[in-house]
Amino acid sequence: MSLAVSGNYYGAGVGVDGYTATFIPAIWSGKLQVKFYLATVFGEIANTDYEGEIKDMGDTVNIRTVPSITVSTYTKGLNLATQVPSTTVVTLLINQGKYFNVLVDDVDAVQADIRLMDAFTNDATEQMKIGIDQTVLQGTFAGADSANSGLTAGAISANINIGVAGTPLAVTKLNVLDVIVDVGQVLDEQNVPETGRWLVIPSWFAGLIKKSDLKDAAITGDSVSPARNGRLGMIDRFTLYVSNNLKSTSETPGLSFHCLAGTKDAITFASQVTKMETLRSTTTFGNLVRGLNVFGYKTLQGKALVDLYVYKG
Q1: How many Cα atoms within 13 Å fall on the side-chain side of residue 63?
Q2: Chain centre distance of CA 44
Q3: CA-CA distance, 121 to 295, in Å (whole number)?
Q4: How many other C-beta atoms can be found within 10 angstroms of the C-beta atom of residue 211?
Q5: Is 49:92 a contact under the CB 8 Å cutoff?
């Protein structure tokens, strides 16, 4: 006996589309779509010299400063003046934290042919880095020395305009090199070493560099990928980093940004992932994965930090 196979029987009277809907099950891809993240730069511009052993929020790192030694003029026959140097202590407080706490439902875990926990953890790690980067960049510009910001910057010249709240400096492709050179002069007048200088700028600032006469020299072609740390290149002793995490304010001339410049001596940073755990949920069917990253930062050398306040002119 032969069985007659008809489209109406298998397709419930709707032909090919009905067949597809009934007999080809939905599948879950083992691949995840690419996700784009904001570049982070705090790891490139801050030092971790004093990170020490951090166990939890509220811990402190005590940092001793080097006193200034007085050098006197020697006069034959006179007694020598004696100096007793004293060391002050700067406290770095580990008082901030970022965390994630996500649930992987048992149903989702069965349906998805991917390791959801690993994917969620990797994403959470990137998001914590971005959050910390924003906190550090937007919380340190105020620590710049008074001679390293404003309309009369320059510890010696006191006539360099690098912008101030209410009166930001306009940057165009015609003066972008002048602005970078001026920032370098501000650090020079503070006797800040040339080695290891950095400058963090917004993307439009980088665009002006690429459109200016510097466009052929802006990208150094070095071995460090710009994809994750925003590294652009090197100009006038500065390694340039592009960041969308800088502090911005709406001003009358236009949206203005606190760009940062300096060396790693300026900002110190300490961080520790103190908790990373997986546990069974007590309220539903699924597993929880959560993590805690505690951190702290501080401007140690305000003379090595510049607050460049600018808008796109």
Answers
A1: 21
A2: 8
A3: 19
A4: 14
A5: no
CA distance 251 to 42: 26
Residue with tokens 């953890």: 121
> Distance (Å, rounded) from C-alpha 206 to C-alpha 196?
20
Q: What is the pLDDT of residue 165?
A: 95
Over its C-alpha atoms, the chain yields an Rg (Å, rounded) of 28
What is the SS3 assignment for 129? helix
Give the helix ranges, DSSP H, for 141-254: 176-188, 203-211, 226-229
Beta bridge partners of 172: none
Average pLDDT over residues 166-171: 96
Q: What does residue 172 show for φ and ψ, rounded to 5 degrees?
A: -130, 175
Q: How far apart are the first and last CA of the chain?
A: 86
Name every residue whose Cβ is closer than 8 Å to that of residue 216 and which is 6 or more positions away in sequence: none
Residue at token pair 């002006």: 208
Give residue-wise pLDDT tens across range 208-254.
988 887 655 434 444 444 333 456 778 888 999 999 999 999 999 99
d(CA 138, CA 235): 24
Domain boundaries, given as residue ranges, for the chain: 1-30, 31-57+97-313
Q: Which two tokens stand for residue 119?
A: 């994917």
> Was domain 31-57+97-313 assigned CATH 1.10.60?
no
Q: Which residues contact 114 (CB under 8 A, 6 or more apart)?
A: 28, 29, 30, 31, 32
Could you tell me which residues are beta bridge partners of residue 98? 293
Helix (H, G, I), strand (E, B) or coil at 43: helix
d(CA 89, CA 298): 13
Length of the chain: 313
Q: Which two tokens stand for residue 27?
A: 């599948």
116: nearest Cα among 128, 102, 104 = 104
Q: Is 78 helix (H, G, I), strand (E, B) or coil?
A: coil
**Of all helices (H) and strands (E), which one includes residue 205?**
helix 203-211
